[in-house]
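Researcher: Here's my situation. A collaborator sent me these components and asked whether they could plausibly form a single complex. I don't have experimental data yet, so a predicted model of the whole assembly would be a useful starting point for our discussion.
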Amino acid sequence: TLSLLALSPSGSMAACTTTNGASHKIPGRVGDGPIPGSGSYVDSTAGACGATGDGDLMMRLLPCYQAVESLRRGLSAQEAADDAVRRIIARYPGARTGIVVMDNRGEHAAAASGWEFTYSYRGKGMENAEVVVVKAL
Amino acid sequence: SPPLIINTWSGPFTAATNAAYLTLSNSSSTSLDAVQAGCQACQTNQCDNTVGFGGSPDESCETTLDALIMDGQTLNAGAVANLRRVKDAVGVARHVLDYTQHTLLAGDQATQFALQNGFEEESLSTENSLRACHEWRSNNCQPNYRSNVLPNPLSSCGPYSPSSTSLTQNNIPNPSSSDHSHD
């Protein structure tokens, strides 16, 4: 799954998710990818979030909605990401999750559980994308 | 500092980072255009086989696609779920956003919407996805997402029917599932 977030120089933000889902799923199954607040979520007045992982579990807790609303309440991007993942593993300790969070000033962070997660970013003046490795909570 | 793009994963997924960044660096493009370009890059490149056509076949060996695009200024969103036989899932999602008042279209009707909007109908299967599905069947359909059915889904393929014994809770993902079997 790819979830991707953008922040323009004018301050507008957008998010997208695209995926072919889980292998060997039951025909008709849909995971978290296309669900606003789960696969991704964005509100330019607060920030944006993208997610990947065990979609059948993650879509029950809307981690990206949670993370963006946490930004609105004043948490940092790292605190918001950690909080969203901790809420999932509190109910599903074995869940594999990875979420990226960016506030509307461009501060970004990520949190994960169940695996080593990576994310990529590229901002003004950068020649290439940089990769960040995130250890599981 | 902006223009700024951030996305899940690395390796082949940085093609999406760069495509979105270059789009956003063009002053005539919006952040919505940028995320669409990034997602389309991974769909075309079949990033990690977890994005786009030719990956994650279902029990019937079919690949279906899900996508979401969201505008942070308006909170307008467009999405498609279980999209069949159309490759550009995020492109169709953008059409849901731009040309409807709905948020999410699903299944064959999402395909019909795509075709009405000029998208091409084509198979999403590849030799690799069909091989993965056939290998799964040869391996007694393991890993398997069914539960509380007969025959035992941990050792047998279907067809399945509900078990008459008491239901068991199964909130933990199948531990034998591979790293690629996720959203």
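Model: Some features of this prediction you could bring to your collaborator: The radius of gyration of chain A is 14 Å. The longest strand of chain A covers residues 13-19.
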